[in-house]
Design goal:
By secondary structure, the chain is an alpha/beta fold. It has 10 helices and 24 strands. Among the domains are: about 140 residues, FAD/NAD(P)-binding domain, CATH 3.50.50.60; about 140 residues, FAD/NAD(P)-binding domain, CATH 3.50.50.100. Helix 1 packs parallel to helix 8 and helix 4 packs antiparallel against helix 5. The N and C termini lie far apart (about 50 Å).
């Protein structure tokens, strides 16, 4: 093993796993470092947040994924610093890792655009802890309304505000409406969950602004049919424990959820690479660092500009996976002393689910909505689940929820962000 080229991959998300698995048959030793022991299928996080799935159904241990790959090992550790001169990754929990090639795939985190005080009262949705916290807050809101005798206070508990009209915001808003109208409709006595008010706020001119305008319009109509109030050009100026402010307008709400912004996860110290406003590394056309061609950055951590675009590639899983496989190929070419290639992204389309049997799909000039789009969304997401057993659990859970309108993951667990118990 000591004679092999050492490849260190930081991050076990879509990009990190893609590059590691693509090197399975190469004469290299791959070490994957991650602070968590599991790979998370983030597109289905909202299902955990809305009690549709349990965390174990959308996550799988990284060691399990790579258990048959003899040239790969996994370290549960945090990369605190990168020593570019010595070609080492300094870990908090273990000795430094030397590398010949380094791949940074650290992913993204929630951005509050400088309003960090909002984080405590408006959780985002980026990991399992976030999803469990959102599930806890949403379910506790209904419980609080059930025991509240004052109608005005009860209305505040039953008001949910989702900030951000992208796919995550649309999915959360639609799922809350479904949860109230179908799943919880007969579970309470003092309240009527169908009286729930769900507001989706978008600061831009339309929701799903990366989709075709007609799909945005169809999504708007679908949400309205589910009872979701959508407000565009709505700039949130303040969030507190009682609700939000839109300028001088006060909206009282028991639960506020944030789906409005993401940024690159903090990079290890010492990388010394140029970054954009979202903290993403500005990479070369082969996904490498400008001054260190042996270091690659991919996925949400990288700002990759195609030749004709003024904006970087979106932070979605297909980009990360394609870049991961591409970087593995470049490492092989470097070892064989062949020149680097240019990364070309093959856009396979965009999709977002709105609710039960409702979704929108955009693949080139093909635009789908409604039940057919929902089936496409369902099949694509199940296909990309890493572990086969997870696919089985997801199919069973979704089939049960679809046929019975019941959800079995409605446990209120965890502690809130102020440290109080449930």
């Amino acid at each position: 093993m000591k004679l092999r080229k050492q490849v260190v991959v930081i991050g076990g998300g879509f990009g990190g796993l893609a590059v590691t698995r693509a090197l399975a048959r190469e004469a290299v030793q791959v070490t994957l470092v991650d602070r968590r022991n599991h790979h998370l299928f983030q597109p289905l996080l909202y299902q955990v947040a809305m009690a549709g799935l349990s965390p174990a159904e959308i996550a799988v241990p990284i060691r399990s994924v790579l258990r048959k790959q003899n040239n790969a090992r996994v370290l549960l550790a945090e990369a605190s610093r990168i020593d570019l001169a010595a070609r080492q990754v300094v870990l908090r929990e273990a000795p430094p890792l030397p590398y010949h090639y380094l791949v940074v795939a650290t992913g993204s985190c929630t951005s509050y655009f400088g309003h960090e005080d909002w984080r405590q009262v408006a959780p985002g949705l980026k990991d399992i802890e976030d999803a469990v916290e959102i599930r806890r807050r949403v379910l506790l809101a209904f419980e609080a309304a059930e025991r509240e005798p004052d109608p005005e206070a009860r209305l505040r508990y039953l008001t949910f505000v989702v900030i951000g009209g992208g796919p995550t915001g649309v999915e959360l808003a639609g799922a809350i409406a479904e949860l109230a109208s179908y799943v919880l409709a007969r579970d309470f006595r003092a309240i009527n969950p169908e009286d729930t008010r769900v507001l989706l706020l978008e600061g831009g001119a339309r929701i799903l602004n990366t989709f075709a305008p007609q799909l945005s319009d169809r999504t708007l109509r679908s949400l309205a049919g589910m009872g979701v109030e959508v407000r565009t050009d709505a700039k949130v100026t303040r969030i507190d424990r009682e609700g939000i402010f839109l300028g001088n307008e006060r909206i009282m709400a028991g639960t506020v959820l944030w789906a409005a912004g993401v940024a690159a996860s903090p990079l290890p110290d010492g990388l010394n690479a140029p970054v954009d406003r979202a903290g993403r590394v500005l990479v070369e056309r082969d996904c490498s660092l400008p001054s260190n061609p042996e270091v690659f950055c991919i996925g949400d951590a990288a700002a990759f500009f195609t030749e004709n675009d003024t904006a970087p590639l979106p932070g979605v899983s297909p980009v990360a996976m394609q870049q991961g496989r591409f970087v593995a190929r470049q490492i092989r070419r470097r070892i064989d002393a062949r020149p680097s290639e240019t990364f070309v992204y093959h856009d396979k389309g965009s999709m977002a689910t709105i609710g039960r049997s409702r979704a929108v799909v955009e693949i080139g000039q093909v635009h789908l909505s409604g039940f057919i789009a929902w089936l496409v969304w369902l099949l694509v997401h199940i296909y990309y689940l890493i572990d086969f057993s997870n696919r089985v659990f997801v199919i069973i859970s979704w089939a049960w929820s679809y046929l019975t309108y019941r959800r079995g993951a409605r446990l209120i667990t965890g502690r809130d962000r102020t440290g109080e118990g449930t």
